[in-house]
Design brief:
Blueprint: H1 10-22, H2 28-46, E1 50-60, H3 66-76, E2 81-88, E3 93-103, H4 104-115, E4 120-128
Antiparallel strand pairs: 1-3, 1-4, 2-3
Bound molecules: nickel (II) ion.
Nickel (II) ion binds next to strand 2.
């Protein structure tokens, strides 16, 4: 482990301390390590490196041709879509979670297309990492 000291305004560190306490961190070091990892993951996405993510969407399967459009999109990006889970929430609504892997821009583009498809009520991309090189 490499140790370093940082200077932070007192008001800032006291807000940070109460935040990380609420989030369950035992100490500042682990919280700061997670912030660093998050910055590195974001950098990988913008550098178009190999990334992993999940795309979660909620939609009404009665919307005309929506189910087949979504299936078509996933087939067209078959090498990026590792797994899909579909749950019928009620008579109308479905939730679908796609686990995706690929270049940052491709995965972001696929998420934008899926989430932007007419009839998708809500969607989110969770942008994470392959885990390589992130201790
Ligand atoms: Ni369904």
């Amino acid at each position: 482990m490499y140790r370093f000291g940082i200077s932070v305004p007192r008001s800032l560190i006291s807000k940070f301390d109460s935040l990380i306490k609420r989030e369950g961190y035992k100490n500042r070091s682990e919280a700061i390590r997670d912030l660093i990892r998050d910055a590195l993951v974001r950098d990988r996405w913008s550098a178009n490196d190999q990334v992993v993510g999940t795309i979660t969407i909620v939609y009404d399967h009665h919307t005309k041709e929506l189910s087949s459009r979504l299936t078509e999109l996933q087939h067209n990006h078959g090498s990026s879509v590792l797994s899909t889970t579909h749950v019928h929430l009620d008579h109308d609504n479905c939730v679908e979670v796609l686990i995706v892997r690929g270049r940052g821009k491709d995965v972001q583009g696929l998420a934008d297309t899926i989430i932007g498809t007419r009839g998708v009520k809500h969607g989110k991309l969770v942008a994470t990492t392959t885990g390589k090189g992130l201790l």
